[in-house]
Amino acid sequence: MLRRHAISDERWQRIKDLLPGKEGDPGVTANDNRLFIDAVLWIGKTGAPWRDLPERFGNWNSTWRRFDRWAAKGVWARVFHTLGDPDLEWLLLDSTVIRAHQHAAGAKKGAPT
Hints:
The chain is mostly helical and about 110 residues long. It contains 4 helices and no strands.
């Protein structure tokens, strides 16, 4: 059964060979790259902090460190390139609205408003 925030089988087939930690790769063989991808999708889709990652994904700190290592190695760039829609490449949307107090706008103290 596919969970709500899990990667689809079709997308997983497209990226699985791009990911480090496969049998035969140098270093440690990853326990479960697909579960890790699902953890990253859960964080991305829910917007929750890493510390709130459900236990089924493993230790939140280990997961975050692995995410950070993959970012430094360019793994995410390869994944985005493989899965990306050329018309929407690197598009990020944020619907957050933040209201700031007028004094937070950087005006000099004592200046007329």
